[in-house]
Amino acid sequence: MNDLQWDVIGNRVRSARVAAGISARELARRIGVSPSHVSQVERGIGAFSVPALYAAAREIDISLHDLFDPPQEAPPAPAPATLQDLDADGVVQRAGQHPTIQLSDGPRWSRLNVAAEADAEFLEVIYQPGTRVLPDYIRHEGREYGIVISGALDVEVDGVRTTLNAGDSIVFDSQRPHRFWNESEAEVRAIWFVRDSEPGDAAPHA
Amino acid sequence: MNDLQWDVIGNRVRSARVAAGISARELARRIGVSPSHVSQVERGIGAFSVPALYAAAREIDISLHDLFDPPQEAPPAPAPATLQDLDADGVVQRAGQHPTIQLSDGPRWSRLNVAAEADAEFLEVIYQPGTRVLPDYIRHEGREYGIVISGALDVEVDGVRTTLNAGDSIVFDSQRPHRFWNESEAEVRAIWFVRDSEPGDAAPHA
DNA sequence: AACACTGTTCAGTGGCACGATACATTGAGT
DNA sequence: ACTCAATGTATCGTGCCACTGAACAGTGTT
Question: I need a labelling partner for B96 at 20 to 30 A (CA). Which of A84, A88, B33, B185 fits?
């Protein structure tokens, strides 16, 4: 009967825990077990009891169903037109091939997704030194995710400003007033993902 | 730790078993435990282990979610309070602060969004040289957007493979079989955005 | 009188779910 | 350099409880 594969379940626990942003020790404390045991479980050399598993699933925000039977597609059915060539089929886009917009006296935007999509934009943005602030840019529903690849980017969100250095990331709702500029001497390179969401389907969890 | 109330769970097991029309002995035989143990569990003076509970839930046709009480509802929605500090308020996350997971013999994931979100992940992934493919990682509905920051990443989507060099980007639906690995001598750094979408509102595409 | 089912009881045990305590590593702050 | 405070991991050990086995009693059949 013991056909449960604790190692893959442990992997899912670890993934969900990291996704929830808590450490193994913190999880252990919350569910009342020792850190070593959490480590063992996540690496497949131990297993949670039912109460521990239930408590853990709560803390790391994963349903028991997803722990045991993660959503997976049916292999026979999909047949979504097999790809031929990743470049020709619009999956891959090469550096330098991205459609680019150079705003006058502003940053340079390159759209990284090949085909335009209604509700999502994947962008590389280059802010030249001294790039001026865009006064008030389009206000839209959604959420923005960014990471600075190189350089130092000055940001202001909701009236609060800070400086993002290489590796720093930022996430905020688009309706907050926000602007970015580059006060440094070097150009700034950043990756942005902007998702437009219809009002009403906001993720309803803590 | 939350003391699971085994008696009420046992009651649900019994109800579901009777509703499924099988005897306790039959259930015991199917899940590989003794009849006495099933009896004890159903009367709350014993408890199933995780594998037994999982197997039992299958046999008596009840979801694990229904076995345990409806967990809990989310706390009241926070007001859109004005931000005070971009770092403290979970908008900005500094380099090196990202929660990171190192899969054994696999890539290293860092979550770039500060708080976990139900339907979106913003990730930096470092593929060490020679990183092997993880065959059985979580398969989800949605769409993935990636750009290689440095190094050369080998990708295979829908059975077609190519190599992404620095600056190359890729976008595809998650349900296409896909994997990534690093055949080069240098580590690869990439930024990913993975959006999970509930089946049903998928954007129509080829 | 057997059967053939049903669920229940209870003493007993083996395994594993767990803890205590170590260690290695990394990043931040002297 | 040296802490200090985190992180995850390794190893050894043990107490408990998930489970068994063999009994028990009841209810219909034939």
Answer: B185
Strand C close residues, chain B 103-132, CB < 7 angstroms: none
CATH code at B174? Answer: 2.60.120.10
What is residue A11's three-state secondary structure? helix
Tokens found for residue A116: 């335009």
> How near does any CA of chain B get to the CA of A160, in Å?
7
Q: Is residue A17 part of a domain?
A: yes
CA distance A206 to chain B (A): 6
Cβ neighbours of A203 in B, within 8 Å = 117-119
Q: Indicate the residue of B49, B139, B168 with minimum beta-carbon distance to A72.
A: B139
Bases of chain C below 7 A from a protein C-beta are 5-10, 16-22, 27-28
Same domain, A120 and A41: no
Going from the first residue of chain A to its last (206 residues), give the mean pLDDT of each consecutive group of 10, the final group possibly shorter. Answer: 73 82 88 91 90 89 79 37 53 60 58 64 78 49 81 77 80 74 82 70 35
Asked if residue B74 is part of any domain, the answer here is no
C-beta atoms surrounding A144 within 10 Å: 20
Query: Any idea how long chain B is?
Result: 206
Q: Which of B86, B90, B93 is nearest to A156 (CA)?
A: B86
Interchain proximity B1–A33, CB inside 8 Å: yes
Last residue of a domain, one of B24, B51, B68: B68
Q: Is the CB of B97 under 7 A from strand D?
A: no
Q: Are residues A60 and A108 in the same domain?
A: no
Q: Classify A94 as helix, strand or coil.
A: coil
Do A177 and A110 belong to one domain? Answer: yes
Instruction: Please name which of B120, B171, B124 lies closest in space to residue A172, comparing C-alpha atoms.
Output: B120
**Would you say residue A83 lies in a domain?**
no
Looking at the structure, tell me whether residues B109 and B163 fall in a common domain. Answer: yes
Using a 7 Å CB cutoff, list residues 21-60 of A near strand C: 28, 32-37, 40, 46-49, 51-52
How do residues B8-60 score in pLDDT, each as one tens digit?
788 788 878 877 778 888 899 988 898 999 999 988 888 999 999 998 888 88
